Amino acid sequence: MKKLIIIALIALTAFSACKNKTELDSNGMPQTLTIAVVQAEGIDEIKKVREQIRDYLQEKLKMPVELIYSNDYTGVIEALRANKAHMADMQPFAYVIASRTLKLNPLVTLGNNGKPSTYKSVIISNAHGNIKTMDDVKARSKNLTLAFVEPASASGHLIPRAYLNSIGLNPDTAFKQTIFAGNHLTSVLSVKSGKVDIGCTTNLVFMLMTKAKMINDGDIRVLWTSDPIVSDPVVIKNEVNKDLQKRIQQAYLDMNKERPEILKAYVKIFIKDTTRRSYMVANDTLYNGLRKIAGSIKSLKAN
């Protein structure tokens, strides 16, 4: 019996340590700063660079820093809601969704010559098929399968959904079937393999997959390209100690000069020109455009 009690106490202590790992003390300080990110399956370079950023932050902040990986943006939101993460590297629409119910402070975003970096949404088809233009999509929509990425994706859902609505194609009724692929890579590969007729993604992932030889130059046809979308914010929960928030923000800004090779390696995964890229201070108003688009779509049920 005594032995069982000891084992139980050890288990309880281990559980408590795990449980308290992300809890904040009375000053809003965590034992371990935990950052939630989406894991891009098949793109090992991204995880490698993120671990380098983690190491840099840990050294700079002089406290343990941990990354937790989710398969999708919704998982990142839930990690913040469930107090399993204090921070997140969030896709813009995921931030808009999360900020409806959580108090989040944007810290930084990637800049381009002092202005926020942008990317674009694209709608794609198989280059070897007979869907060559958006006019073809409109004419044949009832026989086509459409793949979004996931509900919390700006480039893979919100922006293309708004565009399709604007040309008279309600994604919920105009197509033979509308699905969520789960991530950008699956959306693109589903188009390539012929599992779906048209798919949505971002131009950055599209170029990244070409670079990684996941697709060839002649595999995919781009049917439509959106206006620029402001890049991802790094956000933190409001209840985290305000001084620590400032230190984290400054650490990202200092990375531009102190560890430029890390930032360059991260940017280079997606784009060729790394010379003008640097972290810059982000603010909530950068994402008001996405909020307006989301508010204009009555059928949108991402929450």
UniProtKB/TrEMBL annotation:
InterPro entries: PhnD. CDD domains: PBP2_PhnD_like. Keywords: Signal. The keyword ATP-binding does not apply. The keyword Transferase does not apply. Pfam families: Phosphonate-bd (PF12974). Belongs to the phosphate/phosphite/phosphonate binding protein family. This is Phosphate/phosphite/phosphonate ABC transporter substrate-binding protein.
